[in-house]
């Protein structure tokens, strides 16, 4: 079984939310690693928008099978293609991702828009996973 997700974000929304003045918002949405990555650029708004679009596209691809909040989806960039970490406490061990789930994500942005597309492939057809904590 598989799922797909796509999201587009207007960069100006993140440009209007200066990180220094809105840290609480950014810490609620992004992981420390995502924040560090985005802030490493001269124009972090484009990267925050692309990361947010990535998280949303992954959420859309998996939300019918996995009960997880978008802030527990991490978009990791380590010099290669972006990859996804899911923080799944109590969902079959201590692994951050379940080996029976493969997720691919692609990100792109201009100075005005960021877009992401995600593909999730579930190897076990009827298993439903859930995050151990209910968070709002």
Q: What's the architecture in CATH terms?
A: Alpha-Beta Complex
Unreliable stretches: 91-96
Helix/strand order: EHHHHEEEEEE
Number of domains in the coordinates? Answer: 1
Major sheet description: 3 strands, antiparallel
How many β-strands, per DSSP? 7
CATH topology value = Ribosomal Protein L22, Chain A
CATH class: Alpha Beta
Mean pLDDT across the residues is 86
Count of helical stretches: 4
Strand order of the largest sheet: 1-6-5
Q: How widely separated are the two ends?
A: 28 Å
Helix content: 25-40%
Q: What percentage of the residues does DSSP assign to strands (E)?
A: 25-35%
Counting helices, strands and paired strands, the structural category is: alpha+beta
Backbone shape: globular
CATH superfamily: 4'-phosphopantetheinyl transferase domain
Cα gyration radius (Å): 15 Å
Description:
The protein has 136 residues and is an alpha+beta fold. It has one domain: 4'-phosphopantetheinyl transferase domain (Ribosomal Protein L22, Chain A). The chain is 29% helix and 29% strand. The chain is built from 4 helices and 7 strands, in the order E-H-H-H-H-E-E-E-E-E-E. It has helices spanning 11-15, 23-29, 32-39, 44-62, and strands at residues 2-10, 66-67, 73-76, 83-86, 101-109, 113-122, 129-130. The strands form 3 sheets. Strands 1-6-5 form a 3-stranded antiparallel sheet. Strands 2-7 form a two-stranded parallel ribbon. Strands 3-4 form a two-stranded antiparallel ribbon. The longest helix is centred in the middle third of the chain and has 19 residues, at 44-62. The two termini are 28 Å apart. The relative contact order is 0.24.
């Amino acid at each position: 079984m598989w799922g797909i997700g796509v999201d587009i974000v207007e960069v100006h929304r993140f440009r209007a939310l200066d990180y220094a003045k809105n840290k609480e918002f950014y810490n609620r949405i992004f992981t420390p690693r995502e924040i560090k990555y985005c802030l490493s650029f001269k124009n972090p708004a484009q990267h925050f928008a692309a990361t947010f679009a990535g998280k949303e596209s992954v959420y859309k691809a998996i939300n019918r099978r996995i009960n997880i909040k978008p802030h527990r989806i991490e978009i990791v960039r380590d010099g290669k293609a972006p990859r996804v970490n899911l923080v799944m406490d109590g969902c079959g061990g201590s692994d951050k991702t379940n080996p029976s789930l493969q997720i691919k994500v692609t990100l792109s942005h201009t100075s005005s828009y960021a877009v992401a597309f995600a593909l999730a492939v579930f190897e076990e057809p009827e298993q439903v996973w859930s995050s151990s904590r209910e968070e709002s």
